[in-house]
Amino acid sequence: MNTINGSHAYTVIRVDGTEEVHMLNPSESLMLREVAAQIGAQYLDSFSLRDGRRVWVDDLGQSKGLPVNVKATALYWSICRVGTTYQIRGDVAVLNEEF
User: Fold this and answer.
1) What's the pTM value of the predicted model, to 2 decimals?
2) What are the tens digits of pLDDT across the range 16-42?
3) Please, what is the Cα angle at 42 between 40 and 87, to 5 degrees?
């Protein structure tokens, strides 16, 4: 995530593979609500990429039957044990760990 004019940029990876940069007002109380709305999630879960970034996902993506997000799944598998088969479903947001 980069800082632009006092706000913070984060990336949304859509299920179709497109990536969008969005601006986030760094108010901690609103940040996760804003991210959840951007990816269409009511409940969030996250995982660390172990490089200073955290990926936020729809915690109910599987049960909602959302499509597989191939790019997000590749990011997830990059930090998992070899042989992991769980797939990320739905849009995701990638933010710096500090937020």
Assistant:
1) 0.88
2) 999 999 988 766 667 888 999 999 999
3) 70
C-alpha span between 94 and 55 (Å, rounded): 5
Show me where the domains of the chain are located: 3-96
Give a three-class secondary structure readout of the chain. CCEECCEEEEEEECCCCCEEEEEECCCHHHHHHHHHHHHCCCCEEEEECCCCEEEEEECCHHHHCCCECHHHHHHHHCCCCCCCCCCCECCEEEEECCC
Compute how many other C-beta atoms are within 10 angstroms of the C-beta atom of residue 82: 5
